[in-house]
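Q: Predict the assembly, please.
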Amino acid sequence: MRSPAWMWDELLLACALVVENGWRELREGDRRVDELSDLLRSLPLHGDTARGIPKFRSTGSVSRKTTDLATNHPAYPGKATRCGRLDREMIARFTADPDIMLKAARAIEAGIGSGELVQIPEQPDEVAEDGATALEGRLLARWTLARERDPKLRRRKIDRVRRIGQPLQCEVCDFHFGRFYGDLGEDYIEVHHVLPLHASGPRETKLEELALLCSNCHRMCHRSHAGESWRTPAMLRAKMADYGALSRPRYTDDAC
Ligand SMILES: [Zn+2]
Ligand SMILES: [Zn+2]
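A: Predicted assembly structure:
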């Protein structure tokens, strides 16, 4: 049985190692290769069957992947090994934004190390509608979405907003579910992490780090687009203002 193809999160961890090694490959026998092999074998991505395959993310396959990533870097002087499209995309991401990618790798490692990330079930929207994974990877998207859906955290945030007398409405576009859907929409709002885990690190969430959003603005904050994997509510608001969407009268049907 063949090992399953490398997924984005796995490549992210391998590429982080290559970057920290000065864009050089790591050989078998290197302690860091052993550790990455163990970590990859424990990720909740491929199910238990993969772990039964002896070569699945073995030290040999991990070392080979670091060679592919290192030799396909545009600045590598020698001959490149054969690699896939995802490998090349990963090299480009790390070249464009090494800090955020290294932070993402650290956050995944921390989540696996603490056991927290292993317990979270797959979330329905951790993969985008076109099948693509967020730039920070599937596991961090999963973790962020699970935190946002944590009923206790939601309750605390909503109670806090109520206590200070603010309406439960979208912080970006002011949409208020109750005003549009009556008692059906009363109390409905989505809770969003202003900074996702790959940017904030896996610290405990504070209420100030959560924003209230309507479903449309929430999706637009998470949507990967044009090399960006997310945007804060303030960034989304600025984008809408640029586009003129906030200056037009809202929620009226255009007569056409
Ligand atoms: Zn909104
Ligand atoms: Zn969100």
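The longest helix spans residues 98-114. Residues 170, 172-173, 175, 213-214, 216-217 surround zinc ion (ligand 1) (CB under 6 Å).
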